[in-house]
Amino acid sequence: MERRICEAVYESVMSQRLTPGTKLPEAAICELFGVPRSVARKALQRLAHEHVVDLHHNRGAVVAEPTPEDTRQIFQARRALEAALVPLAAARATKTDYASLRKQLREEHALLHRAGQPAWARQASAFHLRLGELSGNAILQGYLAELVSRCSLIVALYEPPGNAACEHGEHVQIVDLMESGAVAEAVKINDNHLVDLERRISLERPQPAQTLAQMLGLA
User: Fold this and answer.
1) Which string of DSSP letters, residue by residue, matches the chain?
2) pLDDT for 45-73, tens place per residue?
3) Lowest CB count within 10 Å: 13, 88, 161, 173, which one?
4) Model pTM above 0.90
5) Selecting from 3.30.70.580, 3.40.47.10, 1.20.120.530, 1.10.287.3510, what CATH number does the domain 68-199 have?
């Protein structure tokens, strides 16, 4: 049940149903999912560890509210890390690896118009994580996984919909450039890709008039 709660909250955040600052009272979680407080508390602690919710001593759990400075630092760190990872990945990637990347991009394209935000976000993130794997550096790959996760959350919370096609096209460009040996240009396109993603984020959003059950897709 702990996993079910975490998945429901995560999916609702990624679908933009749960908005920043929404309260997630333990009592309400217990009632909605039919679990004891100990299970609800563990689920909220796990979500806090993954930066999906913030735990406050007086307010309890609320959906995370990344600040402009949080956003700037997270994207800055990710751009610096991927600028190092792309050349490492290009140096190690084989024809088989590129074929696998292109298969992944075809799957990404297929999700553009027929999948919801959570499925698209996972697939788009998977592209960058795959580049991290190809780098062969497990330490950098671990840092990337955390940064991609936190960026995905910020994008889900604050980015207006309708930019998936642009992001997919940039992924294709990056792979084309890497495979052709234009690694410096691939790094530049990837950096611009992340800069554009950050620029599209708007930290202002009206709160929808919905119950917690509706936002969690349980009503």
Assistant:
1) -HHHHHHHHHHHHHTT-SPTT-B--HHHHHHHHT--HHHHHHHHHHHHHTTSEEEETTTEEEE----HHHHHHHHHHHHHHHHHHHHHHHHH--HHHHHHHHHHHHHHHHTTTTS-HHHHHHHHHHHHHHHHHHHT-HHHHHHHHHHHHHHHHHHHHHPPS--HHHHHHHHHHHHHHHHHT-HHHHHHHHHHHHHHHHHT-----PPP---HHHHTT--
2) 999 998 899 998 887 899 998 888 999 99
3) 161
4) no
5) 1.20.120.530
